[in-house]
Amino acid sequence: MSAPSDRAFLGLSAVLFAASAAATIAWCASMPATGGMPMPGGWTMSMAWMRMPGQTWPGAAASFVGMWAVMMVAMMLPSLVPMLGRYRRAVGTGAKHLGRLTALAGAAYFFVWIAVGVALFPLGAGLAAIAMQQPALARAVPIAAGVVVLAAGAFQLTPWKVHQLACCREAPGRGRALTADAATAWRHGLRLGLHCCRCCAGLVAVLLVMGIMDLRAMAVSGAAITAERLAPAGQHVARAIGAAVVGAGLFLIARAAGLV
User: Fold this and answer.
1) What string of DSSP letters covers 55-70?
2) CA–CA distance, 109 with 132 (Å, rounded to integer)
3) Which member of 30, 128, 208, 225 lies 3.0 to 4.6 Å from 49 by CB, making a disulfide possible if both were Cys?
4) Greatest CA separation for the chain
5) Contact predicate 42/141, CB 8 Å
6) Which distant-in-sequence residues (6+ apart) come within 8 Å of 130 by Cβ?
7) Rounded Cα–Cα distance for residues 174 and 255 (Å)
8) Reduced to 3 DSSP states, what percent helix, strand and coil does the chain have, rounded to the nearest 5?
9) Is the peptide bond prior to 172 cis by the omega test (within 30 degrees of 0)?
10) What's the whole-model pTM score?
11) 3-30 helix and 215-230 helix, angle to the nearest 10 degrees
């Protein structure tokens, strides 16, 4: 990868990250005006899973998916850039349209995350509707959230997590060449996205239950994902994060049960 090409790639990545982070902050800042819905059990239902006044369900879904896509760019781009850098080296310095191929691989990666958002909205909206209609179930949500966080922390400690993390950190693999064509770029981006979704499942689950509109939760989740991808001993970082998340899950369960 030539120095000018390298600088352009990093510069465009920085601009995209800044724009997505600014859009995410602006979106979250607009939410306090609408607030959330206080629920039995002492928690607040996120407005992300609800329709705004006069909004249709397709419109609400489109709004959520758009927000989700921008948020994923801000959270995942710092850890994606090194993976795209390895893709560029695997394709070769002299490849034609290297910038376009890199953009296509990145688009395929985020296409996977957008598909996740499309699947999440009806699930979240359905669970929100059930919680609003069933007060007894709503009261159990704080304990259920603690259980999800506990399970997410335990996931961080599994060999399967270590394997998925290795796939993200090493793809496309040392010494492996890739052909410089659009189909290969798209497939490679899809593979990266699928590995990333599996690798980040626990931390994204924590984000969802702790508050998808909470900038602090987004920042912590994004920092954890980036650290385990880029740190020299990523598997040890992932386990340390897992231990911390397990502790947080136990605390949430104990608090929901009135023990602390």
Assistant:
1) --HHHHHHHHHHHHHH
2) 35
3) 128
4) 63
5) no
6) 137
7) 47
8) 80, 0, 20
9) yes
10) 0.90
11) 150
How far apart CA 228 and CA 22 sit, in angstroms, is 24
Q: Residue 43: which H helix or E strand, with range?
A: strand 43-45
Contact in structure between 171 and 192 (CB atoms under 8 Å): yes
Mean pLDDT, the chain cut into blocks of 10 residues (260 residues total): 72 94 86 67 82 87 93 94 89 78 95 96 92 87 94 95 86 70 93 93 92 86 93 91 97 90
- For residue 72, CA distances in Å to 52, 53, 85, 189, 200 come to 23, 26, 19, 15, 12
Checking 142-147 for CB contacts under 8 A at 24+ apart, the result is: 142/41, 142/42, 142/43, 142/252, 142/255, 142/256, 143/253, 143/256, 143/257, 145/43, 145/209, 145/210, 145/252, 145/256, 146/249, 146/250, 146/251, 146/252, 146/253, 146/254, 146/255, 146/256, 147/249, 147/253
- Which residues neighbour 21 within 8 Å (Cβ) at sequence distance 6 or greater? 74
Q: What 8-state DSSP symbol labels residue 32?
A: G
